[in-house]
Amino acid sequence: MSETPVKQQNTAAYYGQAVASFAVAISATAIGIARLQADAWVRAFLGIAVLYLVTSAFTLAKVVRDRQEAGQIVSRVDQARLEKLLAEHDPFQKL
């Protein structure tokens, strides 16, 4: 008997909270950089650094998700092969 893993679904509230949290964080950072008492080139450098950090975080999240999904697929293929071997095996068969 095989156990099929339950696919986890995020609720709309969880998704909304994640989007709102991201929006607040990026807005607060942008406002902080804009109101910083520094030259324009310093603020521009910090703005570019924040954009680089955000894109790197999205890329890292995608890579981690893709690796996890690939591991699940390999696990399912291995489990299917094992189940096939066990189904075909007859312990009472004479050699």
Automatic annotation (TrEMBL):
Keywords: Membrane, Transmembrane, Transmembrane helix. Residues 14-66 form the YiaAB two helix domain. PANTHER family: INNER MEMBRANE PROTEIN YIAA, INNER MEMBRANE PROTEIN YIAA-RELATED. The keyword Transmembrane helix applies. It comes from Streptomyces noboritoensis. This is YiaA/YiaB family inner membrane protein. The chain crosses the membrane at residues 12-34, 40-61. Pfam families: YiaAB.
